Fold this protein.
Amino acid sequence: MYRKFIATVTAVSIAITGLSATSAAAGDRERNFARIAAGVLGVAIVGKIIHDSNKRNDNRGQVVTRHRVEPAPVYHAPRVEQRHQVQPRPLPRGYGHNQQNARQNSKLLPQQCFKSYDTRRGQVLMFGSRCLQQNFRHANRLPQHCAQQIRTRQGNRFGYDARCLRGAGYSLARG
């Protein structure tokens, strides 16, 4: 800061000195000296005013302001009101563990209905249709695409293919 000020004053004084360097009479020299001194003094005064102005505005690197600074706005997430949660309807009477066991039991086929029959094409494993009607409560719900008729030495037999029923989720009751 001071270096700029001194350099400016020096440059102005050299410029004024160069302009006034003419061969003149002795009286003119005194007038020229007075003019140069007045110019240097004017530049010094202007420099001092600039220096004082900068000093007032410079408060440890911060610009002093006189107006109130508002804080930056802060985002607040909107509040979500908790709504009253609707309770589910109660389950029907008898539904639950017993119902789950009933579903599992509806897929367990009775062991006494599982038979092996010899045919011309080999051995066939199936559940007899009449036995299932008498011993299995859900016989009317068995998949119809698993129903089959086979020919044995004792005659025609009607039933359900064991592999097909297993693929549909049925299994043999153990015990």
In short: Strands lie at 58-59, 62-63, 108-109, 114-119, 122-128, 147-152, 155-161, 171-172. The mean pLDDT is 78. The radius of gyration is 57 Å.
